[in-house]
Design a protein that fits this description.
Elements: H1 13-29, H2 34-57, H3 63-86, H4 92-98, H5 100-114, H6 127-145, H7 150-178
Helix pairs in contact: 1-2, 1-3, 2-3, 2-6, 3-6, 4-7, 5-7, 6-7
Length: 179
């Protein structure tokens, strides 16, 4: 087991499960068949649940794991969206709408890191953020199984993504005031 300089394990089962979504994302990009794509989405969804469950159950939660998990989630989602745009199953506007919360998270992270009067805070998953991730995964299934409902799902993800962005922004603002 590889350890960081502070003695914490870098390679843990939960972290391996999280990073498997990177491989699954690449797998999604190299296939266009519906059944393999459905299987990849299902496996990614399972690993998204499993990594957190394993981390809590085995007490293997770590700062690295808290970073790897959302990055792997976003990477998988980005691969799926790119795959759908490349195969003309999603338009560019739909892709941007689906990834809105993720784009805003990147902007927020850079702002939080580079604005001197904002003190460093620990970003934690929030209910609306989890809802966006779940809705994104549901939308991916809709694109494959019920394409006529795609627009409605995209708008739903976008709306919840806007609400999640506001929620994270308010959390950042409140944390700034407390410190």
């Amino acid at each position: 087991m590889t350890r960081a300089s502070n003695g914490t394990a870098l390679v843990t089962l939960p972290n391996l499960v999280s990073t498997s979504r990177v491989v699954l994302g690449f797998g999604f990009l190299v296939t266009e068949a519906v059944m393999p794509r459905l299987a990849l989405i299902a496996i990614a969804s399972l690993t998204d649940f499993l990594d957190g469950w394993l981390a809590r159950r085995t007490q293997a939660s770590s700062r690295l794991g808290a970073l790897v998990d959302p990055v792997a989630d976003r990477f998988f989602a980005l691969c799926v969206v790119i795959g759908f745009v490349a195969s003309a199953q999603l338009s560019v506007w739909q892709a941007v709408a689906l990834m809105f919360r993720d784009l805003m998270s990147i902007v927020g992270w850079f702002v939080a890191r580079n604005v001197s009067w904002l003190r460093p805070i620990t970003f934690k998953a929030r209910l609306l953020g989890k809802a966006v991730t779940g809705l994104q995964l549901a939308t991916f299934l809709v694109v494959l199984l019920w394409p006529a409902a795609t627009d409605g799902m995209v708008w739903l993800v976008f709306g919840v993504g806007v609400a999640a962005t506001i929620d994270y922004t308010l959390m950042l603002w409140r944390e700034r005031v407390r410190r």
